[in-house]
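Section 4.2 – Deliverable D4.2 (structural model, holo form)

The reporting period included a commitment to supply a predicted holo structure for the target in complex with GLP. Inputs used:
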Amino acid sequence: MNFVKTTDYDAMSRKAAHIIASQVILKPDCVLGLATGSTPIGAYAELTRMYEAGDLDFSRVHTANLDEYVGLSHDHDQSYHYFMNLHLFSKVGLTADQVNLPDGTAKDAKAECIRYDQTIRALGGVDLQLLGLGHNGHIGFNEPADDFPAGTHLVDLTESTIQANSRLFEKKEDVPRQALTMGIQTIMSAKKILVVVSGADKAPIVKEAFFGPITPRVPASILQLHPDVTIVGDAAAFSQTDL
Ligand code: GLP
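Output (structure tokens):
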């Protein structure tokens, strides 16, 4: 694994954006795997800045997001459709035919998961997958479990994830209990993986996931087996490691 340590959140965001930008410059028709959560917001803002300066062109890029809540309409302000549109798609000219997310409003979740995996395969797979890291080690919404799930699937969110994400909803009862997420195999099939981590609250899980044993109880630990992973984190997130 390649670790890049930065002084703070803004430097982390710039570094992550530069890595994503290099991918787009080197392969203008690439497939970017994208993530939500608060951590990548700065990187998306930096990509927007590069686009506005005329340094980046997304016109041939396709995207595939990791996950989506079940039951939230696409215009709900906490849906990941809304988030991506707000922070990136609308800012860099990515149009509906270029972007892909699991559809959390689909009547048949199982069929939707199959459709989503087929969509990613039809795109030729993900070139660069961006990931955040949950406090319990989840990536996408792959929660701690007894096995590593393979493809896109329906998950019951754990209490700690519901709790963590409740800060974004009016009340905890409003947080969806389920989500659709790319599976571990889908994520591990990406050619390159970029993880962004920030803040002292992530320090214990950064240590456990990337320096501890590989176990489905800490889903992100599987990334240790991927041949091309870069973890960009600020000093606070790396504070419990020797980096
Ligand atoms: C959410 C998302 C994940 C994200 C994680 C961490 O539950 N499904 O993709 O990585 O939380 O979020 P944050 O970056 O806000 O800490």
